[in-house]
């Protein structure tokens, strides 16, 4: 069966091949009956070159270069620019910027080649002229001319530095300026806006009304030879002060003594107050308002709306002398108001009687004091006194903690609210005091004509009446009771100088059964403030605030007990009390030349002893 199928497939393949062979001529016969002709060759493509280039147009540029341009060239896809026959640029642009002189042309270019070039053109590049050096120039103008201010703008050009200054025109001398130049350093501030007084090399800090000022400028020269012609000048004049202002001067209550007058002046909102003191003769010579105003405008000026007028700054006055104070106020626009004028009379010489406070007769308890005085060389009908704690503001601020100032004040203002009066008395009883607090008492007596006496003043401290043991007996010998209980003061050998002060250290050995109090303070202060030894001893005990002492608890190294010392030291406690502890070290950080160490003490019976003292040792500076 397989064999039959194979024979069948072979017959089929032969038949198919024969069929295809017979069909081939038949397919050819289906075409034209004409004989076959050859295909003609393609015609060659004709080249199209760019058209001839037109004339070149030249346009000179600001920087000296020349822009070359040509009209569009037909069929050109790009442009070839030539200089001296050499291509310098192949570009799609119809322009070329020439920066060098020469003969230039251009031709159009496309894929078929380059067209005919333009006619050559001559390009000449002009060389820029070298910059000329800028001439130095100074421009200075005033932007404000007020009575107290001149504002300017200044521009300096064409120079790296310059000499400049300003001064009042009346003292400006060109020849003198030339002599300054060799000592000056040129300024390099080429632009300036601001006050004339701050311009380079200013001549002052203020501008005066109506005064002309000259600014001068000199440009440096290489040879250093200058003449007056080299000086540039600019002159400006401040505005004048004028009348018509609405601010007037007011005077406070005067303070008058035998040879001076003090007055506080005020003028709310004023720019300045001008004032002057005149004698009666000087005042009479000023015959009209204009003359007075002119005098005041040239007199002492206080900027602001207040002034302190003291006659002693201008005149030396005698008692019972008339003196005139004149003043005016200037507002912010430079206008002055009405002239203030007031006459004052200095006090007469005081009568030659004196009030003397007798401390030996004064007595004190815990809350009261009996103050007594005597009158010498006169008779008093009343006594005006001032008594207050020593830290009272009136005593500290107004009276300056000065007995002399307080006495003057009482003489001038006997009715002042802080003062009290007793009539036909030589003592006063003071009550309601605080034990241990320090007080001040000042008194002045007045006779029947109201003339004040020479006054006197003391400090005192209310304290229980104690027996006071003096160092010396009436015959001048030392009191054995005092000597037997006298403590010993040991000045430490490690005191040292720091700045202008001595760091002073000491200890105190007390006699058995006694209680001590110590301080270190100026001996001059003690002599001025305390009239008796008892008063000073009481003050040490009752007023620890007067002490500068500091005692040390368990110092780490007794050689350097000062915690401020660079080498360190032990811990310390500031002692408001000056009570003596025998195992403690005492300290005064600001001791100076007349400082003394003082110790006073009480015995078992409560008796108070006169102070013992030692001088501060002389210490070499570190």
Percent helix: 10-25%
Number of distinct helices:
9
Strand content: 35-45%
Query: Residue ranges: pLDDT <50 for 5 or more in a row?
Result: 1-8, 15-34, 563-568
Mean model confidence by pLDDT: 85
Computed over alpha carbons, the radius of gyration is 56 Å
Based on helices, strands and strand pairing, what is the structural class?
A: mainly beta
Shape: elongated
From the structure above, extract its key features.
622 residues; mainly beta; four-stranded antiparallel β-sheet; 9 helices; 43 strands
Description:
The chain is mainly β. Strand 35 (496-498) and strand 36 (501-509) form a beta hairpin. The longest helix has 27 residues, at 2-28. The radius of gyration is 56 Å and the shape is elongated.
Write the layout of secondary structure elements.
Elements: H1 2-28, E1 57-60, E2 66-69, E3 78-83, E4 86-91, E5 95-98, E6 102-110, E7 113-114, E8 121-123, E9 137-145, E10 150-157, E11 163-168, H2 174-180, E12 191-195, E13 212-218, E14 231-237, E15 242-243, E16 250-251, E17 255-256, E18 261-266, E19 272-279, H3 280-285, H4 289-297, E20 300-303, E21 306-310, E22 322-330, E23 335-336, E24 340-345, E25 354-357, E26 363-364, E27 369-376, E28 382-389, H5 393-398, H6 403-412, E29 420-423, E30 427-430, E31 439-446, E32 456-460, E33 468-469, H7 480-485, E34 488-491, E35 496-498, E36 501-509, E37 515-522, H8 523-529, H9 533-542, E38 550-552, E39 572-574, E40 586-591, E41 595-602, E42 608-609, E43 612-615
Parallel strand pairs: 15-23, 33-42
Antiparallel strand pairs: 1-2, 2-5, 3-4, 3-6, 6-7, 6-8, 9-10, 10-12, 11-13, 13-14, 16-18, 17-18, 18-21, 19-20, 19-22, 22-24, 25-27, 26-27, 27-30, 28-29, 28-31, 31-32, 34-36, 35-36, 36-40, 37-41, 38-39, 41-43
